[in-house]
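Field log, afternoon session.

UNIT: design team B
ACTIVITY: writing a sequence onto a fixed backbone
BACKBONE:
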């Protein structure tokens, strides 16, 4: 499970470089892990070397969206808060803006917006995070951007979250 925190942390760090990857995948991503999400438009490029199921970076700004599922009976039985803490383990100086229980696509979960530093003291990033529990998987939906730009693309991430469904 430590790789989940590493993957999310690495993705957050990578957004600060502002690099775009290959062309965005189809408008809907269907995971072999049994879920689907609608992807944002052409302003986002997919990262081919990501450990997440989908990692998208904004083509002209340091912003990223990640979706990932980790499956197995051990994960599905963990408390949702411990799973959330693992994802944010690489953050320092955390300032929680929002923390609430949610239901997305019929799945129980937690929703957070957190400001924190991921590497250098001047690399402040705001992260919106949904951690959802399924019967056999835990689903992470993450959006990260500098606080000053965060609201600019948040609606695109929220549309992705609203489209989350198990198949």
């Amino acid at each position: 499970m430590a790789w989940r925190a590493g993957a999310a942390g690495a993705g957050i760090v990578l957004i600060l470089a502002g690099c775009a990857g290959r062309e965005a995948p189809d408008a809907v991503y269907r995971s072999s892990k049994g879920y689907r999400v609608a992807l944002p438009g052409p302003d986002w490029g997919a990262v081919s070397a990501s450990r997440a199921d989908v990692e998208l970076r904004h083509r002209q700004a340091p912003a990223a969206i990640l979706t990932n599922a980790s499956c197995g009976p051990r994960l599905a039985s963990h408390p949702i808060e411990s799973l959330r803490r693992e994802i944010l383990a690489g953050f320092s100086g955390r300032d929680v803006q929002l923390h609430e229980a949610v239901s997305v696509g019929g799945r129980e979960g937690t929703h957070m917006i957190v400001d924190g530093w991921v590497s250098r003291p001047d690399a402040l990033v705001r992260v919106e995070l949904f951690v959802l529990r399924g019967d056999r998987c835990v689903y992470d939906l993450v959006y990260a951007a500098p606080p000053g730009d965060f609201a600019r693309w948040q609606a695109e991430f929220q549309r992705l979250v609203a489209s989350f469904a198990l198949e």
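LOG NOTE: The CA atoms of residues 38 and 71 lie 21 Å apart.
NEXT ACTIVITY: expression trials, pending approval
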